[in-house]
Amino acid sequence: MNSAETSPPSAAAEPAGWVTAQRGADHWQVGDVTLTSRFLLGTAGYPSPKVLGDAIAASGSQVVTVGLKRQLSAAGDNGFVDIIRAALAGQGARLLPNTAGCRTAREAVQLAHMARELYDTAWLKLEVVGDEYTLQPDPYELVVAAQELVREGFTVFPYCTDDLVTCQRLLDVGCPLLMPWGAPIGSGQGLVNPFALRTLRERLPDTVLIIDAGIGAPSHAAQAMELGFDAVLLNSAVSQASEPVRMAGAFRQAVEAGRDAWLAGVMAKQDYAVASTPVTGNPFLLNPAASAGGLVLPGAGSAGGTR
Q1: What confidence score (pLDDT) does residue 93 get?
Q2: 60 marked as part of a ligand binding site
Q3: The whole model's pTM is what?
Q4: Is residue 210 part of a domain?
Q5: Whole-angstrom Cα distance, residue 287 to residue 284?
Q6: In this predicted structure, what is the pLDDT of residue 292?
Q7: Domain total in the chain
Q8: ∠31-256-260 over CA atoms, to 5°?
Q9: What pairing do the DSSP bridges indicate for beta strands 33-35 and 28-30?
Q10: What is the distance between the alpha carbons of residues 183 and 187, in angstroms, rounded to a whole number?
Q11: Segment-wise mean pLDDT, segments of 10 residues, the chain, 307 residues
């Protein structure tokens, strides 16, 4: 299969409604929306609405996710979304509804339309779970749902595994970016398959890639950014911390540090030692020809040069 069959159409060939995501040194872009924060935050499980609002502010996030099923279950109480909207307005952020809890493409599509009407946005984090134990995305239902939603004008952020072929199929049907997992949702295990994630980054160099799920510590987020991923999305690592607001700030710094490290160029690993200080140019050099412990002064002749 050639590259033309596995990549999104070029700009000249883009169908109407095709949305692209672009990578940049200091920003990233989805369609005509430019973002500078590379930390996306979830809104479930916080101790209180105030803590949630403060955590959003501390994170510096410009994209905050919310589950539609959570909102529907609290019908008649708009306080939750009002708090989120107020926090987002304070830092120019956007709401990203998700279809968490869906098991089929049909259910996800129906929920997506409800989300677009309720939140007045075409952005959608698409989740279609295929296994209740691991909460692993169902690749087949996911691609079917993504194709339908793109056709209906949604900007789809697909939550997927790190499988390269599935990721290519999602790009083929028009997803502007990908959100592969680092580990199962809520597990806090970090990046359990760095090889697969590195492969995604290498094979899809121009695609916006966001690590979603499994992040448990700021070091995990930094690692993802050091691998060249464009952003991270997490929820439980902040909401379940003893001090969520402080943890949100810690993740913000970790994401920024990891991004800076990627841009600066992380040194390559070696299987052996490499001296950081060269011998040449030292003020005093060990003289292999001299007796044990003898020193030779730079420029000294071989005759009478040691004492």
Answers
A1: 82
A2: no
A3: 0.82
A4: yes
A5: 9
A6: 55
A7: 1
A8: 95
A9: antiparallel
A10: 7
A11: 39 55 77 93 92 93 87 56 76 89 96 93 96 92 98 98 97 98 95 97 96 97 97 97 98 97 92 81 59 56 50
Residue 294, phi then psi, degrees to nearest 5: -75, 150
Residue 228 vs residues 56, 148, 264: alpha-carbon distances, Å:
24, 30, 11
CA–CA–CA angle 130, 133, 138 (5° rounding): 15
User: Six-digit token pair at 4?
Assistant: 């033309």
Q: Would the annotation count 242 as a binding residue?
A: no
Domain containing 52: what range? 28-264
Asked whether residue 235 is assigned to any structural domain, the reply reads: yes
Residue 213 marked as a ligand binder: yes
Any idea what DSSP says for residue 231?
E
What does the block give as tokens for 125? 């984090």
Active site residues: 125
CATH number at residue 259: 3.20.20.70
Q: Are 160 and 192 in contact (CB under 8 A)?
A: no
Q: Is 112 annotated as a binding residue?
A: no
Amino acid 132 reads: E
235 is in an annotated binding site: yes
Considering the domain boundaries, does residue 306 fall inside one? no
Q: Is residue 300 part of a domain?
A: no
